[in-house]
Amino acid sequence: YSDAGSGFAGDETMFHAIEDSIKHNVDVVSVSSGFTGTGLVGEKYWQAIRALRKAGIPMVVATGNYATSASSSSWDLVANNHLK
């Protein structure tokens, strides 16, 4: 899936792309994202990530692409706690 428009995609576009990835049984999902604020995403994102995991599709994410906006938490710790 590609949103070839402005180079930016909102939450709903991301969720639809993840759903389409599962439907089309892709090999991998690669995302480059940047969030303002803490860098932590909401439960809807975790549900989408868990659905990919359940389908056996790995997701590779480059985060922190929004200038100086970053979480002070270790991303690995945050991700591991949510994906258990």
Automatic annotation (TrEMBL):
GO terms for biological process: proteolysis. Pfam families: Peptidase_S8 (PF00082). Residues 7-73 form the Peptidase S8/S53 domain. One of its GO terms (molecular function) is serine-type endopeptidase activity. InterPro entries: Peptidase_S8/S53_dom, Peptidase_S8/S53_dom_sf. This is S8 family serine peptidase.
